[in-house]
């Protein structure tokens, strides 16, 4: 399966609450991705917990190595 930035962005928007902005960037060859996301789901969470939420949403893609590497910049809306 070829994964697009739109696929990643749509999945995050669908599964996280209060997404204000999300941008997925192909960093290398379609399986190394960067994600910048702002959502109310991240309010009050530390960086590790925020990243764990993103990993949970993209668990299938990480498990089958459609996504081999993922860099996450997450922040809440508060």
Summarize the entry for a quick read.
The chain has one domain: 2-Layer Sandwich (GMP Synthetase, Chain A, domain 3), CATH 3.30.300.
Radius of gyration: 12 Å
Give a short account of the largest sheet. Answer: 3 strands, mixed
Strand content: 25-35%
CATH architecture call: 2-Layer Sandwich
Amino- and carboxy-terminal Cα gap: 36 Å
Count the E strands.
3
The CATH homologous superfamily is called: BolA-like
Q: Which H/E pattern describes the elements? A: HEEHHE
- Which structural category do the helix and sheet elements fall into? alpha+beta
Shape: globular
Count of folded domains:
1
Overall average residue pLDDT: 96
What is the highest CATH level, the class? Alpha Beta
Q: Into which percent range does the helicity of residues fall?
A: 25-40%
Map the helices and strands:
Elements: H1 5-15, E1 19-28, E2 32-39, H2 47-57, H3 59-63, E3 69-75
Parallel strand pairs: 2-3
Antiparallel strand pairs: 1-2
